User: What shape does this take?
Amino acid sequence: MISVIIPTLNAAPGLGATLESLLEANRLGMIAEVIVSDGGSCDETAQIAEASGAKVLIGSKGRGAQLIRGAEAARGDWLLFLHADTELSPGWEEEAGRHMAGAFDRKAAVFRLGFAASGFKPRLVAFGANLRSRLFRLPYGDQGLLISRRHYERLGGFADFPLFEDLDFVRRILREGGRSAVSLLPAVAMTSAERYEREGYLMRVLRNARLVLAYHAGVSPEELAERYNGRLRKKSRAHGKAALDGAGEDPPQP
Assistant: This one.
């Protein structure tokens, strides 16, 4: 059975839809539990999670740390890490079931990326992300991650990084098992486009690319997160409350 682990920080607007997309799998008896690992939300995130029957863990914020806490508390044989603003498309449970039946504990799976927005720009960004996932097997956290507990623990789990904890872990999966160690499932992880629309699609894609290149060049996740947070603080002073609201977020994943 699957333990679903969702890291949250002031995630009330999208969490309900994320949890609703898990209902069919729960009805089929595939889900052992849903764990919401919260980083100290000041909105109704915890109440929404508890009302759905999820287990809520509250601790220090930081996506890496929150994922680690959730995994340590999980009791399922399989772990599904899912962002709080990501809704899985109908039928995902059938594809996940087939993957788990044939993976022999050593193969992870992710979903195709989609955005909950219309127009050419979100489709183009999603196309690029899915092409990268197919060609290089380098998905990011927005696409979810399904992995057996044994494989997760064998690889050492997520690192307590403020940024790129997902990329770091996927690279370890690939180093051990090669390209075939990560499967791209046909179901879609439909994620919010709010940050792209707020920052501008081109600006966000370029910023993400700069962060990824710096990470591959050896800049630490801590330094990259500080650069990002410093930019947000500067933006908040220039533009007021809208940017200040964003300054409370974890550094978003590319």
Strands lie at 2-8, 31-38, 55-58, 78-81, 86-88, 108-115, 145-148, 182-191. Residues 221-239 form the longest helix (19 residues). Residues 241-254 have pLDDT under 50 and may be disordered.
